[in-house]
Design goal:
The termini are far apart. This protein has a two-stranded antiparallel sheet with strand order 1-2. The chain is mainly alpha-helical and about 300 residues long. α2 packs parallel to α4. It is globular, with a radius of gyration of 20 Å.
Amino acid sequence: MGALIEVVLGGLMAGLLYSLVALGFVLIFKASGVFNFAQGAMVLLAALAFARFSEVMPMPLAFILAALVMVLVAFMIEKLVLRHLVNQEGIILFLATFGITYFIEGAGQLIFGSDIYRIDLGLPKEPKIILESTFDGGILISIEDLVAAAVAGLLVLLLALFFQKTSTGRALRAVADDHQAAQSIGIPLNRIWVIVWSVSGFVALIAGIIWGGKLGVQFSLALVALKAIPVVILGGFTSVPGAILGGLIIGVGEKLAEVYLGPIIGGGIENWFAYALALMFLLFRPEGLFGERHIDRV
């Protein structure tokens, strides 16, 4: 029983990190109606900026400067790209995020370098054993993962409240439904896009710091961030609760599959389990758990 609880806890903590990255995808999709393929590159750029700034200044100041970098990136994306694509087809906006992806990765490598950088948050790396008196052998838990999950969970909660309780959150939903209609009732589309890309950049910064602290800041970090794609497929592209629940399901599911199915069908199942589950949802419920079902009336 203790081993099962240990696996589930590890999955929940990983799932919260997936949810955090997935929220970046949901933010952009709700504001523009397009899937932001550049979210992984944003996580990489944010982590690179924080890692390099923290080498020469205190971490709080490095965090503020890295956040300002992401706000500047959001402003430039809106001014140079999105402003010229208002009311264009979704596929055009989607392809634009591909261009943004490669530009961000190239600019990050040019400005901050391409080596592997460390982020030392001062958290203990050694796992702790808890509840030894309750379970035989106790439960092994990573303090670093626990703190990271707590931070991710708090930010997820704040973003959920932001969408549900603020006028800006309602404006984001209106913009996603119809750009022209939102503009016609006085919603400033350009300002909304800057806000949502800035918030998404802040989410990418937190995710980049957490993942960079665990894995090191390197260009494969952008691919790790894309692990959140199955999460948004599972939860629904427009649903904040779906991103949260989808991340938890993916996190727990891949840990359980690796531990209990891995010895039977072979190792490495943790690397592809999420994508296999997402494929099943695309076949049988493409709108996800909480996504809105699209109906074409003729």
